[in-house]
Design brief:
Blueprint: H1 9-12, H2 24-47, H3 55-62, H4 64-81, H5 84-112, H6 117-120, H7 139-155, H8 157-176, H9 182-210
Helix pairs in contact: 3-8, 4-5, 5-7, 5-9, 7-8, 7-9, 8-9
Length: 213
Amino acid sequence: MVSVGTIPTSRLDRVKLPSYTCPPYAIADMRLITSFDEWLFHAINSGVGKWRGWDRFMMLLTETNTWRVSGALLAILMLIFGDPALRRTVVAVIVAIVTTDVISSYVLKPLVDRSRPTHALQGIRLLNRPKSRHAFPSNHAANLAALSMTIAWRHGGVWAYVLIPITVFVGFSRVWVGDHYPTDVLVGWLWGGICGIGAAWGLNYMEQFWGWV
């Protein structure tokens, strides 16, 4: 005798769990996006990238130490010569960059598991040796977007006019040197921008709540 609320074994054998199949149009759309991404990568890396006079400049932009040193100097200047609001912004920038970099490196990249162009494509110009295989998203693009948007969101003006174009050029350089696909950079900008705006908004809220001047 079967108790109330249970299913007989004979019926369990006939139970079919619902299955999900990705629609064909979704697969086609992803292939289209991937194909365009690869085409745009080649157009920048091997097409526009034939202007070899720009290689040294792009390598300077894409070099990690360039932005570590520049960022440290910027933070020191802001702490020494900035007003209290600008000094608090330095803390917000650090929080934004750490959040962006840690989640990008240890969550998003292993989760998506997309290989860099150097591991997937043929006939590319490789000017830089990537330290890891994972490409998506670009940490360079994400971290600089986090820095730029935190400062630009809080202070605007000349900060935005200077930092945002630098962020764009650095992201472009990541494709130029062969390290990333364009969508790696675009998503990096988006993710870093979200973290930067979030850090700036959080600091603005704290200033209003605590009455900081």
